[in-house]
Write a structure and sequence with these properties.
168 residues, alpha+beta, 2 domains, 19% strand, binds zinc ion
Amino acid sequence: MRCPKCSEHKSRVINSRQGREGREVRRRRHCEECGHRFTTRERLDEKFPKIAKRDGRREEYARGKLEGGIQKSCVKRRVSEEAIQRLVERVERRLAEGGEAEVASDALGGFVLDELRALDLVAASRFASVFRDFKSAADYESFFAAQAEAAEPPQSAGPAEPAEPPER
Ligand SMILES: [Zn+2]
């Protein structure tokens, strides 16, 4: 990191601090050449990995697209827009912190599902149905069975009902 005063590259980090809800890291630096102290900011969202699709294509991570999918899953559920925003931030942090050059879209879906499960099981099942391509009611049933096995205490998401009535 180049010192803004003397342009030398010999600076060392004195401390690092997270700002803006963990989406920015501020580093206080000390120039070993001239003693100048300065701050650099690192935006985590500049380091998102590329998303690797199942068909082999790569695309840029797009927050809007992710948000849209989650909002769709939460239609008519008691999940606030604020809760969705916080969820997206946690997913983004996980994406950025992994430090990978690319992440499979399935893995990204898994991150979302981990978060959504804790928020609302029905919304999670809807999201899973899209990204795991559920074909039948049996897929929903095994999804809910797996959730019951995970057996984490539900967080007042209301009674869990399948997104579609199971057919028998
Ligand atoms: Zn300097």
